[in-house]
Amino acid sequence: MSSVECAFVLSSENLNESMKYTIIKIIKEERPETIGKLIKFVQQTTAISEKEIINLLNQLETEDKIQLTTKRELASAPVRFSFFSSALASYIALIVVAFATTISVFTIPQDSYPLAYVRNILGVIFVLFLPGYAFIKAFFPAKVPIKTASESLDNIERFVLSIGMSIALAPMVGLILYYTSVGIGLTPMTLSLLALTGILATAALARHYRAKWTTIQRTSDFC
Question: Cα 197–153–190 angle (5° rounding)?
Answer without folding.
Answer: 15
